[in-house]
Automatic annotation (TrEMBL):
Pfam families cross-referenced by the UniProt entry: CbiA
Name the record gives this protein: CobQ/CobB/MinD/ParA nucleotide binding domain-containing protein
Organism placement in taxonomy: Bacteria, Bacillati, Actinomycetota, Actinomycetes, Kitasatosporales
SUPFAM superfamilies noted in UniProt: P-loop containing nucleoside triphosphate hydrolases
Domain spans labelled CobQ/CobB/MinD/ParA nucleotide binding: 3-212
Length: 240
């Protein structure tokens, strides 16, 4: 399962890490050996390693999932997927606007020929479901989502779902922004996840505080934030 969106900042890393957290919590290692591998893995192929920063702050021992940071090295994701103990891998990818500055906009494959493009192609080859995050109101995320779907996912026949992320449910009490995004998807024939991920400061602070949703201090907001990811994880399992 791969998070992909050409535009940075739509929530790929946030969603990958937190889906791994809630899914890992429900699927702990079968062995009680503390060194036993976890059936759930959050993997990052970003050469700049945005997941790596997160992994450094969130000690792996305290989490019910493993991290794999490939930094763009080839062969590691395929090897992981061959491991019979691995149940689910959530792959975080880089925004790819600048993957290959030489790539022309009308190239049949906009991922370019650089090493990051190669790493992306390797993952896409193995992707059983792609999640494409978009953010209501932030129109800068919309046409890159469309580009990602039309130019990268559909030509490869990769099943995908749009995920509406960072939805400000407090400000959007009438749900007009949410409905606008749903209509946006429907107009284009893009399947989307019914469960939107709401905007909470807890999530925005998470990369710095080094917490995943399963570790947030108990509060109403923490519960609601976690609920979104549990529901999203269930929906993902329903598709796979
Ligand atoms: N639901 C949310 N509520 C609050 N903040 C969020 C939410 N989702 C993402 N963010 C914040 O928005 C910022 C961008 O999110 P994130 O890093 O997950 O995006 P990304 O798609 O991985 O970006 P990049 O392509 O640069 O790696 C981060 O500061 C993150 O904490
Ligand atoms: Mg990221």
């Amino acid at each position: 399962m791969t998070l992909i969106q050409q535009k940075g900042g739509a929530g790929k890393s946030t969603i990958a890490v937190n889906l791994a957290a809630v899914s890992g919590e429900s699927n702990p290692p079968v062995s009680s050996d503390p060194d036993a591998p976890c059936p759930v893995v959050a993997a990052g192929i970003d050469p700049q390693g945005s997941l790596e920063g997160w992994a450094r702050k969130v000690p792996e021992e305290s989490l019910p999932f493993d991290y794999l940071v490939t930094k763009g090295r080839l062969g590691e994701i395929p090897k992981l997927l061959e491991d019979p103990d691995v149940l689910r891998v959530y792959v975080d990818t880089p925004g790819f606007v600048d993957l290959d500055p030489e790539a022309e906009i009308d190239d049949p494959d906009p991922l370019g020929s650089g090493p990051a493009g190669e790493a992306m192609r390797e993952v896409l080859e193995l992707t059983d479901l792609a999640l494409v995050p978009i953010v209501p109101v932030e129109t800068l995320t919309h046409s890159p989502a469309e580009f990602t779907i039309e130019r990268v996912l559909r030509p490869r026949n990769i099943p995908f779902r749009v995920v509406i992320n960072n939805w400000d449910s407090g400000a959007d009490r009438t749900k007009a922004d949410l409905e606008e995004m749903r209509t946006w998807c429907e107009d284009r024939g893009y399947p989307y996840m019914r469960q939107a991920v709401r905007r909470y400061k807890l999530h925005a602070k998470a990369p710095d505080s080094g917490l995943t949703v399963i570790q947030y201090p108990e509060s109403g907001t923490a519960l609601r934030g976690r609920e979104d990811f549990y529901k999203l994880a269930l929906a993902v399992e329903g598709v796979l």
